[in-house]
Amino acid sequence: MAQTTPNHTQTVSGWAAHDSSGKITPFIFKRRENGINDVTIEILYCGICHTDLHHVRNDWGITMYPVVPGHEITGVITKVGSNVKEFEVGDRVGVGCLAATCLECDFCKDSQENYCDQVQFTYNGIFWDGSITYGGYSKMLVADHRYVVHIPANLPLDATAPLLCAGVTVFSPMKDHNLHQAPGKKIGVVGLGGLGHVAVKFGKAFGHHVTVISTSPSKEKEAKERLGADDFLVSTDAQQLKKGMRTLDFILNTVSAKHSLGPLLELLKVNGTMVVVGAPDQPFELPSFPMIFGKRAVKGSVIGGMRDTKEMMELCGKHNITCDIEVTTPDKLNEALDRVAKNDVRYRFVIDIAASSGAAELPSNI
């Protein structure tokens, strides 16, 4: 049983996995009272991230059951703590992966909280009070306001939810390379899934020539006609890769399956950079020659800090960028997770929490 504290007095209904079968069932649990630095959020939508699948099935061996997944959360504030000045009751807000950090290290002071040694996540983490965190597959969340962002009024809450993880995961490395302020580059996006499709949208909004690189020739039409990509390369076609050699300034690699980075590195110009945001469960193949003969760099990046998240959300409001989603309901969570495992979604599932068919009933005396 997850540890709680005497301050956990609010009874909440949600959905949890209780063992490595990964089956999600209705679940009643406790959340803490709203503290002086907290906001209470009525959750309206929550995206389904591939990370949720890994956690419910304990693929990484770190799951603390029962686990309530969900870190792509949007909703409306219903209560604010006395120290909270930038949020009010009724505000449309979002919560991503971060629940707590030390707030004192160099990374936290530079708003790179995601690299804090003491970072704790929105679910399956340990909060400051010692309790295990429960995520967005639930009706309500109490969150420290320092890890909450406003949602622009023009963006729908359902299609915005995945931006809190997928969106900032691709935005942060693009910002690190000044792609949000220096148009006219040639960039590549490897993989056209939940992360990749958002990266294409960002790349075009920021004024770049975008090439999608995929193993699936069938995705070319969608990449170009629906998402606005300029070019498309099939990564298993040696002739296409040869034609694309030394044409790209920057590559964002979103693929989570094992593959060789060598052929992709050859697509970069001299001094080009590839940033890896996908996380295969086996090591990459990384031959040395494409790096040393092109003075190329391979870097990694994970989600983003709160400054990046806020800036991304403002830019999404300005450019009207959201995710392409399929809305599901809580009673179909297991079906949705099975389809995520098969990559059978274009491009992100979002749970309509209010459509709470199959929710656990709260006791009548609550």
UniProtKB/TrEMBL annotation:
Cofactor entry: Zn(2+)
GO molecular function: oxidoreductase activity, acting on the CH-OH group of donors, NAD or NADP as acceptor; zinc ion binding
Biological process terms in GO annotation: lignin biosynthetic process
Record keyword Cell membrane present: no
PROSITE patterns named in the record: ADH_ZINC
Residue stretches making up the Enoyl reductase (ER) domain: 19-351
Any Pfam family: ADH_N
Top-level lineage group: Eukaryota
Keyword Oxidoreductase listed: yes
UniProt keyword list: Metal-binding, Oxidoreductase, Zinc
Family: Belongs to the zinc-containing alcohol dehydrogenase family.
Annotated protein name in UniProt: Probable cinnamyl alcohol dehydrogenase 6
Species this chain originates from: Prunus avium (Cherry)
Gene coding for it: LOC110768052
